[in-house]
Amino acid sequence: MPVLLAPDRAPALSELLRAADTVGLGCGITGAPDAGALKIAGIGSLGSAGRSEISFLSNPRLQSQLDDCGAAAVILRPQDWEAYQARHAGAPPWAAVLCPQPYLMYALLAQWFDRHRQAGLPKGIHPSAVIADDAELADGVHVGPLAVIESGVRIGAGVRIGAGCVIGAGSSIGADSLLHARVTLYHGVHVGARAILHSGVVLGADGFGFAPDPRTPGAWAKIAQLGGVRIGDDVEIGANTTVDRGAVEDTVLGDGVKLDNQIMIGHNCRIGDHTAMAACVGVAGSTTMGRRCVIGGAAMFGGHLTLGDDVHISGGTAVTSDILKAGRYTGVFPVAEHAAWQHNAAVIGQLAQLRKRLRAAERQGAAGTAGQPTNHKQDA
Amino acid sequence: MPVLLAPDRAPALSELLRAADTVGLGCGITGAPDAGALKIAGIGSLGSAGRSEISFLSNPRLQSQLDDCGAAAVILRPQDWEAYQARHAGAPPWAAVLCPQPYLMYALLAQWFDRHRQAGLPKGIHPSAVIADDAELADGVHVGPLAVIESGVRIGAGVRIGAGCVIGAGSSIGADSLLHARVTLYHGVHVGARAILHSGVVLGADGFGFAPDPRTPGAWAKIAQLGGVRIGDDVEIGANTTVDRGAVEDTVLGDGVKLDNQIMIGHNCRIGDHTAMAACVGVAGSTTMGRRCVIGGAAMFGGHLTLGDDVHISGGTAVTSDILKAGRYTGVFPVAEHAAWQHNAAVIGQLAQLRKRLRAAERQGAAGTAGQPTNHKQDA
Amino acid sequence: MPVLLAPDRAPALSELLRAADTVGLGCGITGAPDAGALKIAGIGSLGSAGRSEISFLSNPRLQSQLDDCGAAAVILRPQDWEAYQARHAGAPPWAAVLCPQPYLMYALLAQWFDRHRQAGLPKGIHPSAVIADDAELADGVHVGPLAVIESGVRIGAGVRIGAGCVIGAGSSIGADSLLHARVTLYHGVHVGARAILHSGVVLGADGFGFAPDPRTPGAWAKIAQLGGVRIGDDVEIGANTTVDRGAVEDTVLGDGVKLDNQIMIGHNCRIGDHTAMAACVGVAGSTTMGRRCVIGGAAMFGGHLTLGDDVHISGGTAVTSDILKAGRYTGVFPVAEHAAWQHNAAVIGQLAQLRKRLRAAERQGAAGTAGQPTNHKQDA
């Protein structure tokens, strides 16, 4: 069950909407005269919200969930509110909050509740943290228990460093960034402002670079990785995601990049602004990705590739060559009942041969029915 | 080499079998009169076990490994023992332990040795741990060095918290759970009794939720994740696996769920009781999985899907639509020598066209050999 | 931007080449008489290196990048230097360093700069580390802040243990190994000499072993994992990679094995010497891999498989049966524009049927054009 505010700290609905609407969406409360005074302690879904929660209808197809909704208030578009009224005689038990973009308003409300929660978190430098004498911490920096900040680190104003984080020598973190517990930055890693780094993130581990070792046949000699990692502003990186340092130059993530959990970005990669990747994606070394790309979960990218701007890759797809043109790309073997898969997969290894046989059958057919055209390009 | 008990602490075979057999399988020792007094310091495989180890035959096809087995004792089914005797004149150098279910008896013995090892581990609260004043720790809780327990946490009786763990504010852990070193729970994460959480596990990181930011074209606005994580009893979660917190409601793992290493469970997912997933599986947000599902390694699931009970997914399969019917499902491109793969994969991009051409060839053939039936459904 | 040495600590070019060339490649400096005295503070790429950096040309196709190169010196093969001179009238602004193997010389230089950086790192045992009284630390061991070393651990000479590492009871680490921050070794894990373990690595978590629990239908009983992990010399393991302990015997990595980030090696696996795996690979339990295998990123291996020596698996390939013969193997669904993929993927589920229809069409064609041979093996 989500954590709710204590009743005495819950804001009134009208006050909450005003405080949360930082982008000027504008919301109107419809309902009983005192609806604006309802105390709102949290957000719930249409199906589960209780009398102290606000909910929202963002997908008009879920209209029917309004019928049983037990929330104090529901955010919805004016046209959905009209549709509700057309279907119901009396007033609903919830106050209607009319808003042109309910999902965005929900996002703003969620941010408000999260800011409220964060305001209650501990502040200052925990005495158990180990901080190098020459590290520079700006005003209002929080360092949690048992964090380690090495020599030459620079931390911007308002940054929160969670418990057990390790910030390597000479690295830097921009203002108002949030590092959850147990994030690791190696040396020479530079993170911009307003970053959110989740637990288990590792930035700046060595890229995977080896050359054949001339002294031992079959053995690999390590190529020390001398570059760093450079991350723009407004980047979020999910739990246990790793971004390796560059071999010679830096590995670079642009502004507004969003990485989900368990992603691996290889050395020397350059990821364009506002590109978002769902969980479990792997990007091999030296691949460049454009701006505003959207990468589905568990997609995999070979090394030294180039992706253009606005390329969307479906989840589970392996990309092994450049994709320069914007659009959506997919390569996934369709799932089937196991026995059916076995039958069909067995044919995969004969496809080139089948194509040849089809060609021969076409020729025979053409010979057998002379004069009938074959309406396709010949291929082999 | 596995760690063995010191000789003076090794139990006698008969005593060990009695102590380990907590489910009443019943085992009979056959062999020399003093076989029950043999000292057993550990468990070994048939091929490697030494004179102070017990081994087991669970797969009858491995019968031949009994011939060279150097173990002190071997657990096997009565019928396999008879088969051995039929093939050999003399008595083996090992004592035969007759048991209807050797693999289960092995599991029980392994648990016994593990309990014995754990009994020797340090107890109590390590002075270097950082524990909030208002955290509630029940009797017999162990907290390892440099662990952090934040405000409002509740820890059940007999729980072991490993070195370097971080337990976020307001979270709770049920009795007799075991957290290995360096596990992270965010705030508002609730774990049931008898859980085993391995190193690097992260529970409760933010789900991956964004809405288009109206202020910057192409940019993403974060949707704060206000739900929590709720995990049933008897759950095991492998190293570096992550389970994200819900957006509004909780992400839920049922009782007896077993997750291997490096798995990612997205926000709002609900995983049914006793479902087991092998390593590297990814489940995108808001997907619901039934009870007793078995998911092979590296299988991937899209978001907002529903899987029924008793669905088995083969390793490496990408699931992109609902699967409600119990059974086994697969979708994996068959591996082949690279050159053969290249030839056949090149045809994949022409399959729709080939189907069309086959249809045309069938028509031509039918025209050319009028009267011969075509014995299939036409498709395109 | 990569970290460079301060100008007063940068070595002269001739001195640097002599110190770095530990394998006797032999490099000759061509250029102005005082070229050997140029101060070199770091390594840069041909496109970005500045006046205090050395660069290298390893791929002759990048010759044209020499034209605008701003480096102090460039390592290149004699024949590439001749080609440059043939294309240019005057001397370049950089000193030419002639070397038969520029990429290897670059690797050696990178190692030199990295050794130089490491020489400046803190030494000794940080007072905040928690070290068991009976742990044995050889000479010159460094233990970073807030690391934990449990009972009975043995650490070889010159080992560096990073901040926040946890070394479990009875484990051992060979001489001159480097553990970056936040590495976890469970109990009974043995690592050879000169290992490099990156942040988030977990060695020795429980393998994923369960038997049906006879007391609860559908439930799983844990099989305690009593084996350990044994890792040879000269092994590197990337960030957040996990290697599980064996069920009965040890999980084994041979000498010179190189694992990239986010890899999962299941229990009881045996990986042969000098085998290298790119990121995100998963190997299920009890699989044996030969020597000098090369595994592409995100390849996945079923359990209980055997791979021979010198097997190369392409990235993204799922391996579900033994591969004993050396060579390269692939199994990846080709990526395509989404609409094209949809059309072609829909045919996958009909392949067995299409093969049958083709066979029928061939028979009809043969009947219609009697006397024309069909030149292929019949399959169904």
Description:
Chain A is an alpha/beta fold and 380 residues long. Chain A has two domains: 7-119, MurE/MurF, N-terminal domain (Udp-n-acetylmuramoylalanyl-d-glutamate--2,6- Diaminopimelate Ligase, Chain: A, domain 1), CATH 3.40.1390; 130-329, Hexapeptide repeat proteins (UDP N-Acetylglucosamine Acyltransferase, domain 1, 3 Solenoid), CATH 2.160.10. In chain A, 17% of the residues lie in helices and 24% in strands. In chain A, strand 19 (210-212) and strand 20 (220-222) form a beta hairpin. In chain A, helix 1 (13-20) packs across helix 3. Mean pLDDT of chain A is 93; it is low at 371-380. Chains in contact: A-B, A-C, B-C. Chains A and B meet through strand 2, helix 3, strand 36, helix 4 and helix 5 of A and strand 20, strand 34, strand 35, helix 4 and helix 5 of B. Chains A, B, C: One of its GO terms (molecular function) is N-acyltransferase activity. Chains A, B, C: Residues 38-112 form the UDP-3-O-[3-hydroxymyristoyl] glucosamine N-acyltransferase non-repeat region domain.
Summarize the entry for a quick read.
Chains A, B, C: This is UDP-3-O-acylglucosamine N-acyltransferase. Chains A, B, C: GO terms for molecular function: N-acyltransferase activity; UDP-3-O-[(3R)-3-hydroxyacyl]-glucosamine N-acyltransferase activity. Chain A is α/β, with parallel strands linked by helices.
